[in-house]
Amino acid sequence: MCTRWLALLVFSLGSSALLAQPTPPPPNQEQTMQILLDRIQQLEKRVSELEDHKRKQSAAQTGTSDSQTVAESTPVPANAAPAQALHSEHPANTTEIREMQVHYPSLQIRGFGDIDFSATDQKGSVSGFDLGQFVLHLASPLSEKVSYFGEVSFTAQPSGYDLQVERTIIRYDYNDYFKMSFGKYHTPIGYWNTAFHHGAWLQTTISRPEMVKIGGTFTPIHFVGLLAEGNLPSGGLGLGYSVGLGNGRSSILSKAGDSGDSNDNRAWVASVFARPARFYGLQFGGSVYHDKLSPLQGPELREWITSAHLVWTKEHPEFLAEFSNVHHRDIQTSQTFNNQAFYIQVAYRLPWLENKWKPYYRFEYIHKPESEPVLSDVSDLVGSTFGVRYDITNYAAFKGEYRNTRHGINEPRVNGVFLQTAFTF
Amino acid sequence: MTADRKIASRAAWLLWCLCLFSLQPLAFDSARVVDVAVVVHPDTPVTNLTLAEARKVFLGNRQYWSTNIPVVLLIRAPVARERNVVLKTIYQMSESQFKQYWIAKIFRAEAASAPKVVYSNDMANELVTAIPGAIAFIDARDVRSGAKVLRVDGYLPGEPGYPLR
């Protein structure tokens, strides 16, 4: 009996000792510390703003000079402000309410940049560093219903920097179901072209897939004209649409018709997508694009681009897949050409090491018929990319990639190592 | 033998009490879990949202309550429990994913601005009453009387099955 009591004693001691152990620190303690420090900074800034405001008000009321007010005010110790703010509730006053309400126009600017290194075993290639695109993004609500978005890029060239207006859009929102805009867009074909714009920090990988690469001709990257977009009443299916009419490609196929169309025929694009509420993170959709091409060299063609995508936008895992068929029909001879391309990209944000590491893999494929008359810079492609992204902060990342690609038929495979640091500011 | 048993019995009783005492903070923690209410401006033409609809609103995919009332998102500053509940339940994102999401959303020209940050439940109460179309998550204990609290999936805060806690 005594033995049984002793066993109970040992069990009780053991269990109480276990229960008495302190909670282990969370794995993302460093991140929490950073958040706390950010919060402290925000609160300190807020306290000083409020003090300034109060000082100005009292100065205005009493008619005393600013210098006197500053001299009389007692400085708050730097470490006291956050402590007070954290432990006391913070009711909003009229000034804060006024500050919270949007003022028009209200310009916000955000910048993106990246610095790259590349080395490949391709004959004639030169390894080294290069500055990627320096991108500025401008957003400004002009009223409750009207807003402006702009994007400009600076790309390093041997003779200087090439400045491009990538997007300039003025949009009128009627409601969630109808938003009308005018300007220069990234053409809503497929997924990548409208999900990731010119900031490399936004995308997981170092570069865009070849089929949607900036300056490429497979997909018309830009579109100048008007666009209607919005949600479709569809309950949990989460349907959305966009329909556009514009200039399409210029006579240089990689360029948009910024300064006017190359012919009297407008391009149009229509796309539909679904984001089912039941599967948060899932998106799928399709798009159709039509244009008449009048290239500098080559025959006039009718162009039909059909595209479909299926993506899972969460990071555990991230899955992106997109397919496009570019159909050309010679207006003179009625000969047709079909060019196909797709990519599949899989990534996974690792749950360890503060969720900072994200390995990824992408497979790309492009097929172009030999007789295709206008897509001269496109070649057959089979390629794999293995890489990893490391988010050094919330706003900057390092990426490293190994690529194995084969351009053209019977061409040797090319191996390459690519490094990038991409950031937003 | 009887004395030994008495001593062992008392020791076991004491240890049992210790056990209960050490379990108490856990029980206290679970009792402390408080629902987070979804509060909107009184003129907002909505009384019930499903969790999926709330997600659509907070992801910026629904930007208008009606043609003339835009949605104004209010969210607590980092570290606040209400923010953690919103990130975990609604966004299903970490703090850094949340920041990246809104940068990308604005950069895609899909939203003009990110949610506005509020520093306390009092401030959230004030602003949600003052700004037409505003929606905020507030600790259910701090919701002011007369505030318009939405049902989520048909439940009000405090009711069994309420999803935001």
Question: What attributes does this structure have?
Answer:
heterodimer, A: 425 residues, alpha+beta, 16-stranded antiparallel beta barrel, 6 helices, B: 165 residues, alpha/beta, D-Maltodextrin-Binding Protein, domain 2, 2 domains, 6-stranded mixed sheet, two-stranded antiparallel ribbon, 19% strand, elongated
Report on this structure.
The complex is a heterodimer of chains A (425) and B (165). In chain A, a hairpin with a 5-residue loop joins β11 and β12. Chain A is 19% helix and 43% strand. Chain A is an alpha+beta fold and 425 residues long. The radius of gyration of chain A is 28 Å and the shape is globular. The N and C termini of chain A lie far apart (72 Å). In chain A, strands 1-3-4-5-6-7-8-9-10-11-12-13-14-15-16-17 form a 16-stranded antiparallel barrel. Chain A has six helices and 17 strands. Chain A has a domain of 255 residues: Porin. In chain A, α2 packs across α4. The longest helix of chain A has 34 residues. In chain A, 30% of the residues are buried. By secondary structure, chain B is α/β, with parallel strands linked by helices. Chain B has two domains: 33 residues; 119 residues, 3-Layer(aba) Sandwich (D-Maltodextrin-Binding Protein, domain 2). Helix content of chain B is 44%, strand content 19%. Chain B contains five helices and eight strands. In chain B, the strands form two sheets. In chain B, strands 2-8-1-7-5-6 form a six-stranded mixed sheet. The radius of gyration of chain B is 22 Å and the shape is elongated. About 8% of the residues of chain B have low confidence. Chains A and B meet through α1, α2, α5, β3 and β4 of A and α1, α2, α4, β6 and α5 of B.
